């Protein structure tokens, strides 16, 4: 996947911007607060249709304006596409090849980026829902039918919640049976992806880190059953509790993921440097899975990549990035010396982006 061009209008601190982009590694460099991260956010929006920094649209629109626009020419799976996102106060409109997007599934199965950013890292570390969303988004591209199965589960859960709120308990049995059929395929897909990641995770972590102890990704399903009958039995046992609570408290929407390094658990025991390095190992593992299974190279968006990493880890990252076939975008205050004259460079200063060589 390659972004051939990026255009912005009244997005964040950019009144207007037109960039022609190439393959390989790109650096957006300059002092802090100039708009480097805003560029990565725009690229993320082009590939995920949402920001990783805010759920609200208003902060994305320049203060003096009532709307913003992001457009890009995107090459993926052998086809060039034109994408436009129009952001209004409370709404957005997506045009794919000059036609309004009707189904989000059409979009998310074509475009994908892998992000490393301080904001996202904090959310991933603290919020189980963010971790589920991260792996589900990858599975929507990796597993045919996963998006549909996930949406069907969400539909069933929403109906069940409505019944619980309305105290229509007699109808719960039927919807529990629907849920019992919907849950196992989701759990099985999440387990399989976790296993694939763990086959690669330790190798990347050892390459990037001086930490001792094997790194492992754990998946903790709320219902650890692959047999619908067993799921149905468990849901029946939880039914009195859910009737009292008034909401659906059991199912894949309660699943969790965690990383461990020997006896250390990520959220509680990893140092900040260990967590950053472990998360980078996770991202590179996922990127390798996309390449091997789909012959697909997602966009890599790496914000403030080299801060708080020691020189040895930075050199290992540089070596790994140089060997990738992905299009890569890195923000940094200074381009590392280890990249020498490699990569395409843009200087960012107060919302102005200037080509600085390659």
Structure description:
It holds the Pfam family SMC_N. GO terms for molecular function: ATP binding; single-stranded DNA binding. The chain has 358 residues and is an alpha/beta fold. It contains 10 helices and 15 strands. The strands form 3 sheets. It has a 6-stranded antiparallel beta sheet, with helices on one face. A 6-stranded mixed beta sheet has the order 8-12-13-3-14-15, sandwiched between helices. Strand 6 (92-96) and strand 7 form a beta hairpin. Helix 6 crosses helix 7 and helix 6 (172-208) crosses helix 9. The longest helix is centred in the middle third of the chain and has 37 residues, at 172-208.
**Rg measurement, Å:** 22 Å
How many structural domains in the coordinates? Answer: 2
CATH architect. name of the largest domain: 3-Layer(aba) Sandwich
Give the overall average pLDDT: 93
CATH superfamily of the largest domain: P-loop containing nucleotide triphosphate hydrolases
Determine the structural class based on helices, strands and strand pairing.
Answer: alpha/beta
């Amino acid at each position: 996947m390659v972004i051939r061009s990026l255009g912005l209008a009244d997005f964040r601190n950019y009144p207007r911007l037109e960039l022609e982009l190439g393959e390989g590694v790109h650096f957006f460099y300059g002092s802090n607060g100039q708009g480097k991260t805003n560029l990565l956010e725009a690229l993320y929006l082009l590939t995920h249709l949402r920001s990783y920094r805010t759920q609200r649209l208003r902060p994305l629109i320049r203060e003096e304006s009532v709307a913003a626009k992001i457009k890009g020419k995107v090459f993926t799976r052998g086809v060039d596409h034109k994408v436009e996102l129009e952001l209004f106060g409370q709404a957005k409109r997506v045009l794919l090849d000059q036609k309004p997007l009707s189904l989000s599934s059409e979009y998310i199965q074509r475009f994908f980026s892998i992000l490393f950013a301080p904001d996202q890292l904090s959310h991933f570390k603290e919020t189980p829902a963010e971790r589920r969303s991260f792996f589900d988004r990858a599975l929507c591209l990796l597993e045919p039918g996963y998006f549909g199965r996930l949406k069907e589960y969400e539909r069933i859960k929403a109906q069940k919640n409505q019944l619980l709120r309305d105290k229509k308990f007699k109808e719960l049995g039927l919807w529990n049976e629907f849920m019992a059929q919907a849950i196992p395929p989701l759990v099985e897909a999440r387990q399989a992806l976790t296993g694939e990641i763990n086959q690669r995770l330790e190798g990347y972590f050892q390459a990037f880190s001086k930490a001792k102890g094997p790194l492992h990704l754990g998946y903790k399903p709320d219902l650890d059953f692959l047999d619908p009958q067993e799921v149905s039995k468990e849901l029946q046992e939880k039914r009195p509790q859910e009737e009292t609570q008034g909401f659906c408290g059991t199912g894949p929407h309660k699943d969790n993921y965690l990383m461990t390094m020997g006896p250390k658990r990520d959220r509680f025991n990893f140092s900040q440097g260990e967590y950053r390095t472990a998360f980078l190992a996770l991202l590179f593992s996922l990127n390798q899975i996309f390449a091997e299974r789909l012959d697909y190279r997602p966009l890599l968006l790496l914000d403030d990549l080299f801060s708080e990493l020691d020189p040895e880890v930075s050199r290992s990252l540089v070596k790994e990035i140089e060997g990738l076939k992905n299009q890569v975008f890195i923000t940094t205050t200074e381009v590392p010396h280890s990249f020498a004259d490699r990569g395409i460079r843009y200087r960012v200063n107060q919302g102005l982006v200037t080509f600085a060589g390659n």
